[in-house]
Design goal:
The complex is a heterodimer of chains A (about 140) and B (about 375). Chain A is mostly beta strands and about 140 residues long. Chain A folds into 2 domains: about 10-60, no CATH class; about 60-135, OB fold (Dihydrolipoamide Acetyltransferase, E2P) (Beta Barrel). Chain A has one helix at about 15-25, and strands at about 30, 40, 55-60, 60-70, 85-90, 95-100, 115-125, 125-135. Chain A has a 5-stranded antiparallel β-sheet, with helices on one face. Chain A has a 3-stranded antiparallel β-sheet with strand order 2-1-3, with helices on one face. In chain A, strand 5 and strand 6 form a beta hairpin. Chain B has about 375 residues and is α/β, with parallel strands linked by helices. In chain B, a hairpin with a 3-residue loop joins strand 10 (about 365-370) and strand 11 (about 375-384). The chains are: A mainly beta (about 140), B alpha/beta (about 375).
Amino acid sequence: MSPYEKPRPVIDMASQPFWDAAKRHELIAQKCKRCGHKVFQPNTVCTKCLSPDLGWMKLSGKGKVWSFVVFHQKYYSGFANDIPYNVAVVETEEGYKMITNLMGIKNEEIKIGMPVEVAFEDVADDLTLIKFRPI
Amino acid sequence: MVEPVIGNFKDKVAIVGVGTTERWGPMPELDIWAMAAQALRNCLDDCGLKKEDIDGVVVGQGTGQPTPYDAMVERLGIYPRFTCDYRPGGRLFGPSVGLVASLVYSGVSNYCAFIYTNNARSWGRKFGGEGDEAGTNLMARAYGMTSPGAYLAMDFNRYMHRFGMTERKLGAIAVAQRKHAGLHPMALMKDRPLSIDDYMNGRYVTYPLRVYDYCMINDGAVVFIMTTAERARDLKKPPIYIIGLGERAGYSHYNFDTDFSYLPYRDTADQIYKMAGVGTKDIDILYYYDAFSPFLLFMLEGFGFCKVGEAGDFIQGGRIEIGGELPVNTSGGHLSEVYLQGRAILVEMVRQLRGECGARQVKGAKIAQYMGASPNASSFILRR
C-alpha cells in the first residue's frame, strides 16, 4: 500500500480495543458493566458511575444518518484532493452517535434519516477506518 | 428550577471602566503587552482611577501568544493583592465576569481589573487542521472532521431537518450584524455591507455554513474594571450594575447528545433571571457569543426568548436589528466588528447602557444580557 497521508486517529489506552476491532472488521462500543451506561467516546471509566469496568459490545453496524456536513475548505493537506468531502454523524441502532464518512453516495444525495450500514475501509496496513454506506 | 450559584449580589458590584486598543486588527507597531497597556490606559481614563488603585488582576488568555498573569502584571507594573489566569479563551469569558464580580463582592479586591490581549491573527491561528486542532476530536480527525465551526455546521444541519429551517433564514443573523457594524467606526467590516443575496452567494466553509456565519480572527486588547456599588458612585461615569450571573458546563459537545445545548442554556437561564428578577421580555439589548451564527438560534430557544424550533422565524423581519424589538450584537459582534472572544462585546454592552454609542445607540436601553456559547453555557445581565 502507498503511504497513508491523511491524519490518523490518536489511539490511546481507552480507544486501542476499538481500533483493533476495526482491523478485524468489527464495530464495537463501550457499555458499563456496572450501570449499563453507553459510552461512545472511548474512555477508561464510565462517565455516569465512574466504574472502571467498561465492557465492549459488538454493534449491528446498522444505523441512520443523524446529520452531515460537507467540507469545502482545506484544513488537512491529506484531504485536499477529496474536497468537497462529507462527514456524517451516524446514530447506530444501539443509540451511539459516530463521526464518520459516507461512502458510495454523492454529497448532494445524502439525506438526514437515511438508513446506512457499516463499511470497513482498510486504508493502511495498520489502520482500518469505520465508514458507512447507504443500504 | 436551578438556584443562583454565585449568591444574590444583584446591584452590589458594578463595571466602572472599559478600555480597548485604539483600533482592531493586526497592529504591527505594538507588541501584545503594548496593546494591553493601551487598553489599560484607556480604561483608567474612562473611570478616573489610577493604576495604583488596582488591587486585583484577572488575565483572560487569548488565542494567540500566551499572556500569563505573572508576565502581565510585571510588564504593566501592577502590584495587586490577587492575580490569576482565567483560561482558556472564549467559552470561559462569561464565567470570568462572575469571577471578577465575586472577588469584588467578597472583598478580596476593591478594584479588580480584567485584562485581555490577543494577537491571534498575527500569530496565525486557524482553528482546525494540521497543527491547530482546536475543536477537533482525536478520533474524528481520521474522517477529516476538524474545527469548531464544523461541529456547529453539523448541529445546524440537524436543526434544519428537525424544524424546517433554511439557510436563507439563517442569513438574517449575518445581515443584521453587518448592518450594525456599518454604524460602528471601529468595526472591521464597517465598509462591507451585506445583503441576503450576498449572503446566499457566499462560499461554504463547511456546508451548510458559509463564510459569513463564521467569526473573524483578529488582534486587539480589552480591559475592564469592577468595584463595589458604593465605590462606583464616586467615579467618573455612571456605574453599570451586575444584576444576574450564571453558568453551566455541559461538556458532551463531541457526542452530539445535548440537543443543541438547550439543557445547559435552560439551567443558566433559571439562575440569571431568578437572581436579576427580570425575564426575557425585560431585556432591551441582547448579546451572544457569535463564534458561529447558529448559536443564536439555540440560545434564543434555550434561554426562552422563543419556543423550541421557532428561532428561525423569530429572527426575521428586522426584529434583531437596531430599531427592532430585540436588537442583538449591536456592535456587529464577532461576525462583523471584531473577534475578541466576548470581551469587546462587554465593552459594547457597557457603552450602550451609558448611551455612548452614537449612530448605533439603542435609545433608552436599560437592561442588557450576554449569552455565552456552549459547551460552557454562561450568561450575565447588566443594568444602568
